[in-house]
Amino acid sequence: MIIPRIKHDFSRSCEGIFPLALTLRACTDGEKAAKALEYFLPQCTVALAEDANITATKTDLPAEAYRLTVAKDGVRIEYGDYLGLRNALSTLSLAARIEGNNLYLPVFSTEDAPASTYRGVMLDPARGNPPFDEFCNVLILAAKCKMNMFHFHLVEHQWLSVEMDCLPREYLYKGYYTKAQVKELNDLCDILGLEIIPEFDMPAHATKLIEYFPNLACDPPEDTPQSTWAICTGTEETYALYEKIIEEVLELFPKGRYFHMGGDELEFADLAHKRPNSLCHWTICSKCKAFREKHGLKDRTEQYYYFTNRINEIVKKHGRQMIMWSDHIDCARPVGISTDILMQFWRIAWPGRGPYDGCSFDEQLNMGYQLINSHYPETYIDEEPYINDEKIRTWRWDERPKCAEKNKKNVLGGELCAWNYGDVNPKFLFHDRRLPVTLALMGDKLWNGDLLPYGEDYEKALTRTVLGAKTPAELNIFTGIGALIPPCTEAWSYPEKVTCSDDELLALIDTLSKDLFTAGDAFRAKIYRKCLLYTLKNRKDSAEQ
Fold this sequence. Notes:
By secondary structure, this protein is α/β, with parallel strands linked by helices. The chain contains 15 helices and 19 strands.
């Protein structure tokens, strides 16, 4: 078994042996493919050669599909587009086993294609950029798990995560990514087959933006506490600034089809007593009132729709399609937002935070939108009640939340969301141990579509996916963690769920301490070793009490 699962399972009983230095016959995408395979198998050097042990031929197969045959005399790949070739190389790397100086592959063949067209991961470094190499390691694993979309959340109310000329340098987080690093990221994602979707959240989450552009704050009555959560959309200055921002973001990320405008969490009125700064003043703002009167807008909702359509026109002018979070679509009234916008569903707004009567996942589909499913209880990794082993085992992007059969075709797929990724607050450091496993599980779910068949074989395959081709065949790190997805509390594992002996734990720890792992695989081996050490220490501490 490999994860993500392919349509044809195979046995390792019949194996071919290839030299450690792999060669790929020159093809349309040969140079990129060779680099991608080196990322997936960092222990190997891949070269282009006419006399090659891997041949790749472009055919009329559908997008992302591939045929792969591994025989004793070599590997043959047929593919229709670069992503199909990338997917075949992912399967090849996941099936590979490296021992000493030899690479072993099972003899098998498969014709494979994804169950969903949108398979994404959202990374949010805007509250504290993680080290750039670690950030890249996550993207390499995402591509190896056959993800095809990288949603890059660039800005939050606290910080901006990438260098931009049109915004003050003081807006940048101290560990921001430079323009040179952004170019590296573009080049890496091009090789990996990850389409970058840059997001600049607007009009809310604007606290820091308003701090540097105070004239873009709303103008409420003098007796109202000023809020800097949502920028004023009743002034043309706002649209002029956002157009500059969009233009520069699209220059920074020149490839791809999309721009994400955010558009979520316009206010937290239910928490006004605790967070008066997190309100939207459009209803009482003098500038917004005059703007609504000028443009014939009845209320704040129509003003939000007007803003969204203005931003959409800017995005379309630059040749991109806009994506937005969909929690402010009011399904109980005619929606004035263009249906050419791709909606990303994470929830229906709560009372005091937006429209909710008559609103649902299915109703948004009934209104003619296509959706990306990021329903937060099942795709977010930043809270313990959210994604877990059982939820992801049974979840499917076009079934939960409830979805009518006629609407399923318009749910493009799903996206795993890692909010607060890189945040230096200790309570958010769990990403290192949760993100690799959830990437593999979500990759499996979105690629294969079936229930995840948990069990010992699955856990061993999952271990190999996150630790790479040098992972010993019988290694199962999850017996010492107590779950597939570790906690997002300050605990590193679930010791109360672990049944293996101390000797078995020590053997696992010893294996992860060996010089078996390379590049990102080595970083993850170190992280999961800490999970096992936490289990062992907790067990000893409990015994001493």
